[in-house]
């Protein structure tokens, strides 16, 4: 991937090189050759959104190689735009897998969660999927026995949605996250101009490229030891331990004044480490 998300050309090349692999029989309850997991909107950790052009290409590639794309759309409703329409109009990858297309075969699943909208303790989500996937899920032990579904919380959320409280909460939450994000960005822009980042348009996270020669793991260690501040080193987001010059900063929990104070300390520490390097 690059600064704009997954690179379709590299995905296709990867699949082409492995297209001869036949690990099992395809069909029935297992209709897909393989699966791709994506966070197309407000990606964790980078915060980027996949463009319409790339979304279309990913769907085309998924159809060509019989690939199931499972999208973690948990941040999709957390755009910072003050305009309700534009905040909700960002198309998910799922929307590009159009049942009206001549070559449609249902290759995209959209997974979302109320835990990212209301709080991590609310363990309830929803799934939008093609019929072939829904049939597998609905006939599975998870759904058929009833033991894996959160009935009480489902009823609670049904009432919240029907009373219009979800929309009100989302409007307030988006505005709050925007203020908190701006608090983090303003300090970094002022006190740490040698670092690089793209200002997020939604979601929970800021993906910060550290000035050379600093490493994310060293920064995280010093932050926890000297500042009691926690962030994540970029290399934990990569199986190959890439992005070791990045850190992920979350702005979703603390209020703006707390975040500002933390970012001042963070920036001072980075500048001190640069001076010593």
Describe the structure.
- The chain is α/β, with parallel strands linked by helices.
- It has two domains: 8-162, Aspartate Aminotransferase, domain 2, CATH 3.40.640.10; 167-276, Aspartate Aminotransferase, domain 1 (Alpha-Beta Complex).
- Helix content is 42%, strand content 12%.
- The protein has a four-stranded mixed beta sheet, with helices on one face. Strands 5-7-6 form a three-stranded antiparallel beta sheet, with helices on one face.
- Strand 1 (34-38), helix 2 and strand 2 (67-72) form a beta-alpha-beta unit.
- Helix 8 (165-191) packs parallel to helix 10 (256-276) and helix 9 packs across helix 10.
In brief:
The chain is an alpha/beta fold and 277 residues long. 42% of the residues lie in helices and 12% in strands.
Q: Please describe the biggest sheet, giving its number of strands, its sense, and whether it closes into a barrel.
A: 4 strands, mixed
Percent in helix:
40-55%
CATH second-level architecture of the largest domain: 3-Layer(aba) Sandwich
Query: Which term fits the overall shape?
Result: globular
Q: In what range is the share of β-strand residues? A: 5-15%
Kindly give the count of domains. 2
State the distance separating the first and last CA atoms. 30 Å
Structural class: alpha/beta
């Amino acid at each position: 991937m690059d600064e704009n998300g997954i690179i379709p050309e590299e995905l296709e090349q990867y699949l082409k090189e492995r297209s001869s692999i036949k690990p099992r029989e395809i069909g029935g309850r297992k209709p897909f050759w393989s699966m791709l997991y994506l966070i197309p909107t407000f990606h964790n950790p980078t915060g980027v959104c996949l463009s319409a052009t790339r979304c279309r290409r990913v769907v085309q590639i998924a159809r060509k190689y019989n690939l199931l794309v499972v999208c973690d759309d948990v941040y999709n409703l957390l755009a910072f735009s003050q305009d309700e329409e534009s905040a909700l109009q960002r198309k998910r990858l799922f929307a590009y897998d159009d049942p009206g297309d001549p070559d449609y075969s249902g290759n995209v699943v959209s997974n979302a969660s109320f835990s990212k909208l209301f709080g991590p303790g609310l363990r309830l989500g929803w799934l939008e999927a093609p019929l072939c996937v829904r049939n597998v899920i609905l006939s599975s032990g998870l759904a058929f026995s009833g033991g894996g579904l959160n009935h009480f919380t489902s009823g609670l959320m049904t009432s919240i949605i029907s009373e219009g409280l979800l929309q009100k909460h989302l409007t307030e939450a988006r505005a709050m996250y925007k203020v908190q994000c701006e608090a983090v960005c303003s300090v970094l822009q002022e006190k740490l101009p040698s670092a690089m980042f793209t200002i997020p348009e939604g979601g929970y996270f800021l993906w910060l490229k550290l000035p050379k020669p600093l490493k994310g793991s060293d920064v995280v260690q010093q932050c926890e030891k000297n500042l009691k501040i926690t962030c994540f080193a970029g290399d934990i987001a990569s199986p190959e331990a890439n992005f070791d010059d990045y850190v992920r900063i979350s702005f979703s929990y603390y209020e703006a004044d707390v975040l500002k104070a933390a970012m001042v300390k963070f920036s001072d520490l980075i500048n001190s480490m640069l001076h010593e390097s």
